[in-house]
Amino acid sequence: MLRAMRVVWEALLIMLLAIFSKGTGTKSDGTISISSSHCLSWRLAVESNNVRGWRTVPTQCWHYIENYMLRGQYDRDLDLVLQQIFAYLNDIPLSNDGMDAWILDVDDTCISNLFYYNGKRFGCDPYDPVGFKAWALRGGCPAIPAVLGLFTKLVETGFKVFLVTGRDDETLAQATRDNLHNQGFIGYERLILRTQAYKGQSAVLYKSEIRKQLEGEGYRIWGNVGDQWSDLLGDSLGNRTFKLPNPMYFVP
Amino acid sequence: MLRAMRVVWEALLIMLLAIFSKGTGTKSDGTISISSSHCLSWRLAVESNNVRGWRTVPTQCWHYIENYMLRGQYDRDLDLVLQQIFAYLNDIPLSNDGMDAWILDVDDTCISNLFYYNGKRFGCDPYDPVGFKAWALRGGCPAIPAVLGLFTKLVETGFKVFLVTGRDDETLAQATRDNLHNQGFIGYERLILRTQAYKGQSAVLYKSEIRKQLEGEGYRIWGNVGDQWSDLLGDSLGNRTFKLPNPMYFVP
């Protein structure tokens, strides 16, 4: 009897520990802890473009963002946006003049820098241009599978897909091209990197300019997908924009 | 001994029930349940304008949204946006020509319809124009305290505050005016309701038109705050927009 009671007691203790020991976790009444709920507010404010020009993830949110990126919620958030994109896509009246276009950003839209940011405390460390360049030159960013699925569908459907990135044309063109290729991004119309002419310009201005040029060439931009608000603001935005989640960094 | 064991056993049972019985709750390992995490993705997608034109909250998210609105996270999300607004506000170089303007939406920006939506399953029921009109005519919407604080600060600082609402001018002007007054919204420059000329127009077009007119009068719109993306898209948006959370309904 004593033994049976000890088993029950130990089970109870383990559960209590599991529930109450986590600083960034959740509590048994279904609410989340103060730190976690604050970081959730911060993430929401970032995704809805209310917090702008931020340089680092608040340090208190390091493990919250780590959990978010690695434990499923990022993937679920991404999947829901992709569902919306597919629903929209299916209703587009495609012409057969070859001028139906779609724009995708590259970093953390087509291919992921999650491994890199893992080493940067998921964005709690400030932007490190040298470190990022070295990472990008390795050409080892994995595809974001849901977006690769979208890309493939777009190409198969007959869209001209333009990959527009703020990466430096001079130094990163070949590595980026190789990386996209080794991850299955094959069949796009053009990969557009930032040339000398756009150096120092904000991403909003640079990408607006590129989209304006594409429209000038006669393309109809049906969709525009990026993980940064700077991909989705400015001019010639396209018929519809979609914001993919990214709570790790902000590109002005 | 048997009695003591029963006490422990019952405690264990109660905890198990508390943890695992909630469809929308959280689990002991710190993750949230499938339903809850899906509704979190949905809410994020709504707030980042990825889900558009939705007519009702997904029924599976009823209690999730109820919890969100009533148990603190909505207030925390709102407070974080308000902090951003105040930080922005403090850096505005005010002139003394009396033309510095700020725009606030009314419903679920200045005053809350939470009590009403409580009776509409927090948005799982479809929009009920007759019911909403009856509710609005009662003039009993409580102020959203954080936004009343912003309003008061704006008026004190010398901004001309324009309250711009899609509510019908003919039938709801007096009730809205009274409601705002009884909740402390005193000292605004103008309350602008939807007149006959704008009936049937989308909120984006109607509100763009109003803002254009204000700019035509010479006002500089520094800030524009609303709970709907239709408050914050279109023309003459103002120098900066802020999206307040609202997962209960979508105004096209």
Automatic annotation (TrEMBL), chains A, B:
GO terms for molecular function: acid phosphatase activity. InterPro entries: Acid_phosphat_B-like (IPR005519), Acid_phosphatase_pln (IPR010028), APS1/VSP (IPR014403), HAD-like_sf (IPR036412), HAD_sf (IPR023214). Gene3D superfamilies: HAD superfamily/HAD-like. Keywords: Glycoprotein, Signal. It comes from the Eukaryota. Residues 1-25 form the signal peptide. SUPFAM superfamilies: HAD-like. PANTHER family: ACID PHOSPHATASE-LIKE PROTEIN, HAD SUPERFAMILY, SUBFAMILY IIIB ACID PHOSPHATASE. Belongs to the APS1/VSP family. This is Acid phosphatase. It comes from Tetracentron sinense (Spur-leaf).
